[in-house]
Automatic annotation (TrEMBL):
Residues 128-227 form the OmpR/PhoB-type domain. InterPro entries: CheY-like_superfamily, OmpR/PhoB-type_DNA-bd, Sig_transdc_resp-reg_C-effctor, Sig_transdc_resp-reg_receiver, WalR-like, WH-like_DNA-bd_sf. The lineage of its organism: Bacteria, Bacillati, Actinomycetota, Actinomycetes, Pseudonocardiales. Residues 128-227 bind DNA. This is Response regulator. Keywords: DNA-binding, Phosphoprotein, Transcription, Transcription regulation, Two-component regulatory system. Pfam families: Response_reg, Trans_reg_C. Residues 4-117 form the Response regulatory domain. The modification 4-aspartylphosphate is found at residue 53.
Length: 231
């Protein structure tokens, strides 16, 4: 079943290429060429997924991501020529679900869109998947994390990482397993990306991030989310 996708790309030829490939995959596509139009169109039509070029006139893609993420949980894919890892991490911090760097293969982009849409549909329809680890509750329907009843604000990337760990409490996940489980195979997501997300999650859920009780490092192996009730 096709999705309604909004593409915001100021390069007209690139935008039309993306449109053709997505429409060939069964999706309906609307294209705009600046960030202000992207915000207006997203608010007007409520797309199932948004593809944002980072470098756009009027309002850049990062600011569009920031604005729309505050209003909606629509999946957002950032499209950019900048592949510096700090830029990737900034995109995730602003609430992006994925990050595709130019040049890219259109078929690869379509495959990534399918994965994100499938993940979003599973999250919406799986009603019995609330995860509880110690006093942490991860609710994929509400896309909400609470600790001791208090809401913990997480980006989509942090939420995916925490959900993956909470799905198998006390299991040690290697960094490569977390990269594949959260993002799929992607040369732009590295072990350092996982380390940075872990560090930020610790600041949000641990009483003392320097002495973590939940998110533990298993040296030489990876990370685990501890539920002491399960041993």
């Amino acid at each position: 079943m096709g999705a309604h996708i909004l593409v915001a790309e100021d390069d007209v030829n690139q935008a039309e290429l993306v449109r053709r490939y997505l429409e060939h995959d069964g999706h309906s596509v609307v294209v705009v060429h600046d960030g202000r139009a992207a915000i207006d169109e997203a608010r007007r039509r409520g797309p199932d997924l948004l593809i944002l070029d980072v470098m756009m006139p009027k309002v850049d893609g990062l600011d569009v991501c920031r604005v729309l993420r505050a209003e909606s949980d629509v999946p957002i894919v950032l499209l950019t020529a900048r592949s510096v890892e700090d830029d990737v991490l900034l995109g995730f911090d602003l609430g992006a679900d994925d990050y595709i760097t130019k040049p890219y293969r259109p078929r690869q982009m379509v495959a990534r869109v399918r994965t994100i849409l499938r993940r979003a549909r599973v999250s919406r329809t799986s009603g019995a998947t609330v995860l509880r680890v110690a006093d942490l509750v991860i609710d994929p329907i509400r896309h909400e994390v609470t600790r001791g009843g208090e809401v913990v604000e997480c980006t989509p990337a942090e939420f995916r990482l925490l959900s993956t760990l909470a799905g198998e409490p006390n299991r040690v996940f290697s960094r490569s397993q977390l990269v594949e489980g959260c993002y799929g195979i992607d040369g732009y997501i590295t072990a350092r990306t996982i380390d940075v997300h872990i560090m930020k999650l610790r600041k949000k859920i641990e009483r003392d991030p320097r002495k973590p009780e939940y998110l533990l490092t298993v040296y030489g192996m990876g990370y685990k989310l501890v539920d002491r009730k399960r041993g």
